[in-house]
């Protein structure tokens, strides 16, 4: 019976494929154990990945490429949005157009005042609101207005100065020294749509003061804390452009502050893609309360040290600081990195190692702790069998 119990114990240990015996240390292989999809020559191929140790030279090589910096135009965080949802935005802003005066459009309300001729002006003339009284000159869907003695006037697509000049010329046949004024009393024709992660999404009207991206977002109450300010999209006609608002805020890139025009759709997406995942033996994971955590990147940027800290830090008793892994599979390029943090000084390197969206940080378990965990799982079964066995009891030693 004793032999059966011993056999049961070693079979249980054998079923635990990753187990090791005390005194042994499972070394880290130079490559992954499974094939991963890797893009090569624009084709997906399967291969085992090399595990790159995070060293000072690796950090230096990363920092040489400006696009690895947060405001780099080709930073991976600026492309991940398109990669995950399959959109096809144009990286850049629309061609800059010269600012022009406001052009009147259908449904706009004009107020026309002819001085010393109240019969040609709305009641009480310049002292009464054209919009509140309903007596303003509304531009029809055909773009025209009607005015006494002047007849039908083309208003849409013209500035108020051009409309005033034509009215003056036509009324001069009936009135000496015509003095008149034309203003837009209510802007209705040109609209911009601001949607997504802003506090007050909705329609905004284009008025005589040009409306830019920054002004439109401010009028919408600003962005919410769930916004991704790096990947704002602007849809105009049949094209969608990508606008990096952080480049404007933090890098002074005024080209991102695009002048909006009627029909534009400005979308502020959420930050759900800007996450990293911290798994393994983090602080508190032994109780199951913090076994894994999703950590949002701040403005699309985060270092390995920040991720470990936000994830609760490595468990001082359970984890193996010599084996902290970063698994990366974004933009079709799979990579595995290893940080050997036996010395806390290694976290200085980790603080200069930038993470990408959807990276997985895995803190491995100490080998001795694995053995103890296996014994703890098997011991209740052994004890139960020993109760019904008259032979000497077998009690595994738990370290």
Q: Quaternary state, please?
A: single chain
Under CATH, the topology of the largest domain is which?
Answer: Outer membrane lipoprotein wza fold like
Span between termini: 26 Å
Helical element count? 10
Give me the CATH superfamily of the largest domain. Answer: Outer membrane lipoprotein wza domain like
Largest sheet: 6 strands, mixed
Name the strands of the widest sheet in spatial order.
3-18-17-19-15-16
Shape: elongated
Question: Per CATH, which architecture of the largest domain?
Answer: Roll
Number of domains in the coordinates? 3
Radius of gyration: 35 Å
Number of E-state strands: 19
Alpha-beta classification: alpha+beta
- Beta-strand residue fraction: 15-25%
CATH class of the largest domain: Alpha Beta
* Helix content class: 10-25%
Write up this protein.
The strands form 5 sheets. The protein has a 6-stranded mixed beta sheet. The chain has 10 helices and 19 strands. The protein is elongated, with a radius of gyration of 35 Å. Residues 3-27 have low confidence and may be disordered. It has helices at 2-15, 56-64, 80-85, 130-133, 160-171, 213-219, 245-251, 304-310, 346-350, 367-387, and strands spanning 36-40, 43-47, 51-53, 90-91, 109-114, 137-138, 144-147, 151-154, 180-186, 191-196, 202-205, 232-236, 239-243, 265-268, 275-280, 292-296, 319-328, 335-339, 360-365. The chain has 3 domains: 26-64 and 274-370, Outer membrane lipoprotein wza domain like (Outer membrane lipoprotein wza fold like, Roll); 83-99 and 190-268, Outer membrane lipoprotein wza domain like (Outer membrane lipoprotein wza fold like, Roll), CATH 3.10.560.10; 109-186, wza like domain (wza like fold), CATH 3.30.1950.10. With 399 residues, the protein is an alpha+beta fold. Helix 1 (2-15) packs antiparallel against helix 10. Strand 17 and strand 18 (335-339) form a beta hairpin.
């Amino acid at each position: 019976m004793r032999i059966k119990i011993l056999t049961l114990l070693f079979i249980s240990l054998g079923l635990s494929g990753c187990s090791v015996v005390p005194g042994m240390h499972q070394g880290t292989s130079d490559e992954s154990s499974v094939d991963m999809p890797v893009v090569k020559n624009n084709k997906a191929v399967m291969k085992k990945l090399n595990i790159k140790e995070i060293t000072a030279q690796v950090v230096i090589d990363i920092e040489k490429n400006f696009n690895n910096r947060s405001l780099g135009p080709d930073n991976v965080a600026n492309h991940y949005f398109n990669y995950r949802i399959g959109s096809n935005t144009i990286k850049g802003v629309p061609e800059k157009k010269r600012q022009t005066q406001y052009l009147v459009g259908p449904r706009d309300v004009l107020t026309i005042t002819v001085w010393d001729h109240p019969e040609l002006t709305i009641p009480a003339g310049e002292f009464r609101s054209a919009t509140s009284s309903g007596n303003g000159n509304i531009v029809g869907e055909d773009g025209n207005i009607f005015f006494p003695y002047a007849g039908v006037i083309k208003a849409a697509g013209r500035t108020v100065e051009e409309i005033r000049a034509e009215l003056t010329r036509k009324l001069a046949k009936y009135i000496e020294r015509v003095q008149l004024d034309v203003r837009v009393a209510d802007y209705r024709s040109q609209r911009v749509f601001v949607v997504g992660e802003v506090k007050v999404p909705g329609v905004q009207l284009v008025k005589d003061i040009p409306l830019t991206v920054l002004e439109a977002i401010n009028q919408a109450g600003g962005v919410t804390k769930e916004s991704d300010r790096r990947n704002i999209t602007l849809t105009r006609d049949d094209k969608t452009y990508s606008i990096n608002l952080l480049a404007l805020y933090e890098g002074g890139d005024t080209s991102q502050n695009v002048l909006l025009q009627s029909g534009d759709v400005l979308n502020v997406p959420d930050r759900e893609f800007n996450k990293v995942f911290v798994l393994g033996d983090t602080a508190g994971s032994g109780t199951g309360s913090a076994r894994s955590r999703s950590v949002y990147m701040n403005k699309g940027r985060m270092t390995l040290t920040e991720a470990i800290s936000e994830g609760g830090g490595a468990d001082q008793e359970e984890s193996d600081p010599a084996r902290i892994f970063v698994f990366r599979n974004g933009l079709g390029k799979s990579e595995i990195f290893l940080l050997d943090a036996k010395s806390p000084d290694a976290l200085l390197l980790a603080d200069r190692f930038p993470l990408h969206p959807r990276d997985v940080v895995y803190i491995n378990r100490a080998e001795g702790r694995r053995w103890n965990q296996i014994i703890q799982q098997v011991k209740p079964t052994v004890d139960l069998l020993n109760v019904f066995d008259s032979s000497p009891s077998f009690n595994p030693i738990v370290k």
